[in-house]
Every structure is written in C-alpha cells, then in structure tokens.
Amino acid sequence: TFMQTAHNCKNNGAVNLLCCLKNFILYAIRNEWLEKNPFRYYKMKVDRTNVKVPLTKEELDTLIHKPLPNDRLARIRDVFSFCCLTGLAFTDVDHLRKEHITTDEDGTQWIHKPREKTSVLSRIPLLPHPIALLRKYERDETCRTRGKLLPVPSNAKMNAYLKEIATLCNIPKNLTTHCARHTFATLAIEYGMPIDIIAKILGHTNTNMTRRYAKISEANISREMKKIGEMLSA
Question: What tens digit of pLDDT does each residue of 104-152 get?
C-alpha cells in the first residue's frame, strides 16, 4: 500500500519490488540474521490482466512502415524495431558498440554481446532490417560522438515517445522498451523457432526464463489444433 500510494507504483511494480525484498529476507534467514520470515503468510498476486502484451506481426509491420511526422519519433521507432527484431534489451542496445558486430565466413552478420544484466553472451544473427538500421546511423553525428551504433535516448524518454508512436499507428497497447524483447520471443515461437535457440539469442541461461517472455498466441493454438484435426481425419 505504501509503494502504491507514496510512490505511485502499480500492483505488478509493487509486487516486483516486494519479491526483491523477499529474496533478501530469505538470504538473511539463511545467514541466521533473522529468526522469522515476515513473508511466510503473505501472498503476492500478479495482475495478469496488466502484463506486458507483445506486438503481433501485423502491428510490428505497421510500426516499421508508418510515416511519422518528425525525426524524433522516427529515431525512437528505429531503436524499438531493432530491439523487436534482435531481442536485445534496452540497456544492451544502449551499450551496443562496433566491436559487438562480427561477420562469419558465410557473410552473415552477428551480434556477439554479453548482456549488461547478467554478462551471459547473446548470439544474434542479424536480419536485413536491423542491418539497414545500423547502416542508416553509421554516419550519424550524435551516434558517432557518443560512440554508439544507434540513437538511443534515456529509458524514460523512449517510453514516453513510444506512447505517441502507438497512438499514431493505432496500436492499442502500452508500448515500452521491454515490450520489444517480449515481441521478439513471441514472434520467434510463432514461427516455430525452438525454445533453446531463442534462449541463446536472448542470453538466457535456461529455457524457463525464456518461456516467461514468449506468449502463446492464437495463431500457435490454431496451428496446433489443425495438426490434431488432420491427424484425426486421416
């Protein structure tokens, strides 16, 4: 209640903070700094109606190709779509440098970058659109001055501008920087990419973490149901 009133946290944000506190309490108990667990009988409930909703392929296509009224929003759109097509988190695209881009013997360009959060290596083959975006900003003065490959603003500014973009594109979803990572994982699942491959791209150490990102869409459900129908009718 304190976090929701004094700090304007939503339910899920408050739950996330309490989970961090709970983990520290458990650590304190293991080290015998505390005798009792104050969280023992306290249940925290995540509001499942307010979780991050990824973009569909159609919504992502609209966002990528929509003419925008100014360069400010176009640059934000480019960074967001780059994340959607690579699975990079905001802090990782912000720290993306030339040394993280490599080319293999087949001519495929890759991102090989340790995640800022966990230091686990992400290995991402680049699709044509992300490659085009990197080329677009090769000679951008702001990027060159800051030693970055893309014009990444602060997280707060990007989230604010993404709301403008969502309105212009008629996308009825709360777009945030982290929504891009969920979008990549969900679309990869939808197109049949194995979960362990997605985990390598996202830099996850196990597939349980990846499953939290990937949402099962109606397209997946329909495709699998059709397989059962074909099997039963055979």
Answer: 998 999 999 999 988 889 999 999 999 999 999 999 998 999 999 999 9
**Which pTM was predicted?**
0.78
Phi, psi of 53 (to 5 degrees): -105, 120
Whether residue 115 contacts residue 108, with contact meaning beta carbons closer than 8 Å, is answered with: no
Contact predicate 83/89, CB 8 Å: yes
For residue 232, being part of any structural domain is answered with no
Domain around 198: 57-221
